[in-house]
């Protein structure tokens, strides 16, 4: 569901609070929004490749960002305009910092440690 920026942030905090009690995951995605249908984009790319005119174009346009959050079947998204981006990103980063404690620590692999020990043993065996 497409929400305005403030409603998106409040829904995002609710999703993070619900995740603490559940075992679900939240997936956040961000991408530039170009307002062109996919068929037009593909046609333009094909035309550029066909003509082999792949010059770097100075794109001075400011595009809005689409930010999506999914948690199971709950899906929310918002479009952030360049003029509102500073305000939105400060609030967005604060929410992420507050709820960072709910993240699971990454499990370290012990395989690397055993590989190092094996290399040391082989090196000692070749020296002796």
UniProtKB/TrEMBL annotation:
Q: What are the alphabetically sorted keywords of the record? A: Cytoplasm, Ribonucleoprotein, RNA-binding, Signal recognition particle
InterPro entries registered for this protein in UniProt:
Signal_recog_particle_SRP14, Signal_recog_particle_SRP9/14
Q: What SUPFAM superfamilies does the record tag this protein with? A: Signal recognition particle alu RNA binding heterodimer, SRP9/14
- Gene Ontology CC annotation, any one: signal recognition particle, endoplasmic reticulum targeting
A single Gene Ontology biological process assigned to it is: SRP-dependent cotranslational protein targeting to membrane
Q: Does the keyword Aminoacyl-tRNA synthetase apply?
A: no
Q: Kindly name one Pfam family recorded for this protein.
A: SRP14
* GO molecular function list: 7S RNA binding; endoplasmic reticulum signal peptide binding
Q: Where is this region: Disordered?
A: 101-128
Q: Does the keyword RNA-binding apply?
A: yes
The main place the protein resides is: cytoplasm
Compositional bias of type Basic residues: which residue ranges? 105-128
Where does the protein end up? Cytoplasm
Q: Which PANTHER family match?
A: SIGNAL RECOGNITION PARTICLE 14 KD PROTEIN
Its biological purpose is as follows: Component of the signal recognition particle (SRP) complex, a ribonucleoprotein complex that mediates the cotranslational targeting of secretory and membrane proteins to the endoplasmic reticulum (ER).
Can you state the subunit structure given in the record? Component of a fungal signal recognition particle (SRP) complex that consists of a 7SL RNA molecule (scR1) and at least six protein subunits: SRP72, SRP68, SRP54, SEC65, SRP21 and SRP14.
Stated family: Belongs to the SRP14 family.
Query: Which protein is depicted?
Result: Signal recognition particle subunit SRP14
Q: Which organism is it from?
A: Gigaspora rosea
Highest classification ranks of the organism? Eukaryota, Fungi, Fungi incertae sedis, Mucoromycota, Glomeromycotina
């Amino acid at each position: 569901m497409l929400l305005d920026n403030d409603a998106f942030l409040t829904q995002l905090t609710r999703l993070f609070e619900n995740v603490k009690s559940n075992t679900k995951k939240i997936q956040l995605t961000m991408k530039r929004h170009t307002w062109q249908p996919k068929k037009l984009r593909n046609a333009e790319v094909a035309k550029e490749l066909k003509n082999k005119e792949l010059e770097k174009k100075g794109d001075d346009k400011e595009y809005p960002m689409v930010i999506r959050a999914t948690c199971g079947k709950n899906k929310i998204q918002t479009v952030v305009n360049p003029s509102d981006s500073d305000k939105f990103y400060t609030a967005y980063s604060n929410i992420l910092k507050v709820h960072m404690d709910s993240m699971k620590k990454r499990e370290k692999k012990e395989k690397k440690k055993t590989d190092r020990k094996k290399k040391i043993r082989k090196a000692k065996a070749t020296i002796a």
